[in-house]
Write a structure and sequence with these properties.
- This protein is an alpha/beta fold.
- It is about 45% helix and about 15% strand.
- The two termini are about 30 Å apart.
Length: about 200
């Protein structure tokens, strides 16, 4: 695994907030890999497969789940817990996080807080090197709105190979939605804005 990779799980109910946060983070920092999850159970499953470094949580998710949150923190002492703030929360609740970020914070401040928490990274790897040339070809066709069958025909590969490349793209980027992959492709300059079907 890339020693500079910072795996960030995000528990945020709002699609708009999540997509905005992920777009800004992926543009700002090449070593951030985001995983969107819905709840603590999904987080527990994810930590079995991936080494999660940071969890960003909307504090509203903690309502009536403070005991579960305390157990998770105790079970995963190496994870840094961030509260994502865009409304008022009691100071006692906010103290349960290692750090908080506000949606009104400049992206430089947010990335500074995230990097300060996880200081292992000092290499300079191009994120596009993470995707193979063929995975980039598949991503470009996905962004253009082609189906698996259409991509297979266009690139002269089997549908099974297309599905395999899509799984690899999702695993490497941490992005599952087509809109998220489109934003990723545009922000990483893999494809220009005018070729997308957002």
């Amino acid at each position: 695994m890339d020693k500079c990779r910072i795996n960030i799980a995000v528990i945020e109910p709002s699609n708009i907030i999540y997509e905005g946060l992920s777009t800004l983070l992926l543009k700002a920092e090449k070593h951030f890999y985001l995983y969107r999850i819905n709840d603590f159970d999904e987080l527990s499953s994810l930590t079995l497969k991936e080494s999660i470094n940071i969890v960003i949580i909307n504090p509203i998710v903690l309502q009536n789940r403070l005991n579960d949150f305390a157990k998770l923190k105790k079970h995963h002492p190496d994870i840094s817990w961030f509260g994502l703030i865009y409304s008022y929360f009691d100071n006692g609740l906010l103290k349960k996080f290692n750090e908080t970020i506000s949606i009104s914070d400049p992206i430089e401040i947010i990335t500074q807080k995230l990097n300060r928490t996880f200081n292992k990274c000092n290499c300079n790897i191009n994120p596009q090197e993470q995707l193979s040339e063929r995975e980039i070809d598949v991503l470009i066709q996905l962004v253009k709105g082609l189906s698996n069958k259409g991509i297979a025909e266009k690139l002269n590969i089997s549908i099974h190979t297309v599905i395999s490349h899509r799984k690899n793209i999702i695993e490497k980027t941490g992005i599952k939605s087509l809109s998220g992959l489109t934003i990723y492709a545009i922000s990483k300059k893999i494809t220009p804005l005018d070729t997308t079907t957002l």
